[in-house]
Design a protein that fits this description.
mainly alpha, two-stranded antiparallel sheet, 86 residues, single chain
Length: 86
C-alpha cells in the first residue's frame, strides 16, 4: 500500500531540479534574455538551449554529468600515468 507523502517530508524533493512541465528551470535565463532582447538570433539561442536541456533530461544527464561524459569522450581511453606536476 502506497501512503501519501507527509507534509513533513518535503525535504526529499530538495535535490530535484525545478521544472516547468518538461522544461528545465536552468533554461529560463536564455528565455528571459530572449524576451528582453527580442531578435531572431536570441529566439534561436533560447529555443536551442531549451531543446538541449530537454534532450539531456531525456537521457538522464545533468550539466555536470554531461560535461564529465563529454570530457571523457574527448580525452579517449588512454590515460597518462604520470602526474602533471612531474
Amino acid at each position: 500500500m502506497i501512503h501519501p507523502p507527509s507534509p513533513d517530508a518535503s525535504w526529499r524533493d530538495s535535490a530535484r531540479y525545478p521544472k516547468l512541465f518538461f522544461v528545465d528551470a536552468r533554461a529560463v535565463f536564455p528565455v528571459i534574455f530572449c524576451l528582453l532582447h527580442l531578435r531572431l538570433w536570441t529566439i534561436a539561442i533560447a529555443l536551442s538551449v531549451t531543446i538541449f536541456f530537454a534532450i539531456l533530461d531525456y537521457y538522464g544527464f545533468t550539466i555536470a554529468v554531461f560535461s564529465r561524459w563529454f570530457r571523457s569522450m574527448l580525452a579517449g581511453k588512454r590515460k597518462a600515468a604520470i602526474p602533471w606536476w612531474m
